[in-house]
Write a structure and sequence with these properties.
Helix 5 (104-112) runs parallel beside helix 6 (129-140). The protein contains eight helices and five strands, in the order H-H-E-H-E-H-H-E-H-E-H-E-H. 59% of the residues lie in helices and 13% in strands.
């Protein structure tokens, strides 16, 4: 027996599948995903690290994807240098309370980032002020910035060195694609660095 909940489930799954098909058919987006993986591979080969930042669901995605690099995705191999800037609760609460939330990630980029690192900046709107400030801080330190964005990419699109913009207005679907793209990046990194 059909009901509105079933319709909702099917509609969401179909929308997600359709969005993945659109991205797979886009030579530009496929090239950008490949280019992002190549940047990450070069960075890790040089002994540098990947930093991740985002808010809310994008914070969770940052932690998830950073963990895939440190731990493993598909291949048992040495850990890779990756750090989510969303995990230090003492710093997050102290800095946000005492100074302000807008500079939370840029402060960590300033303290932990090095010339030659990569900053992975996640924002479904492309407008998150603290993510934007982190991207600008990264530029000052000669850290390459890769942005996973949604909608029209917002202001972060033009500030990042490489932007992967999910062509959707639906925050949930954008975040789902960010995880998919993140998994692809981690798989490409692992395969290139460790598969024999």
């Amino acid at each position: 027996m059909m009901n509105s909940s079933f319709d909702l489930i099917r509609a969401h799954l179909k929308a997600g599948g359709d969005l993945k098909h659109r991205i797979a058919a886009s030579d530009d987006l496929v090239q950008r995903i490949y280019d992002a993986s190549a940047i990450m591979i070069r960075t890790l080969k040089k002994g540098k690290k990947i930093l991740w930042c985002g808010n809310g669901g994008s914070a969770a995605d940052s932690q998830h994807l950073s963990a895939e690099l440190v731990a493993r995705l598909n291949i048992t191999r040495p850990g890779l240098a990756s750090l989510a800037l969303t995990t230090d609760t003492s710093l997050l609460t102290a800095w946000s309370n005492d100074v302000g939330f807008e500079s939370l990630f840029s402060r960590q980029v300033e303290a932990l980032g090095d010339n030659g690192d990569v900053l992975m900046a996640l924002s479904t709107s492309g407008k998150s002020p603290n993510v934007l400030k982190a991207v600008k801080s990264a530029r000052e330190k000669k850290i390459t910035t890769i942005a996973l964005l949604g909608r029209d990419g917002g202001v972060i699109r033009s500030e990042a060195d490489l932007a992967i913009v999910v062509p959707s207005e639906n925050t949930q679907l954008i975040q789902e694609i960010h995880v998919t793209v993140g998994h692809l990046l981690c798989e490409l990194v692992e395969t290139k660095l460790f598969k024999t």
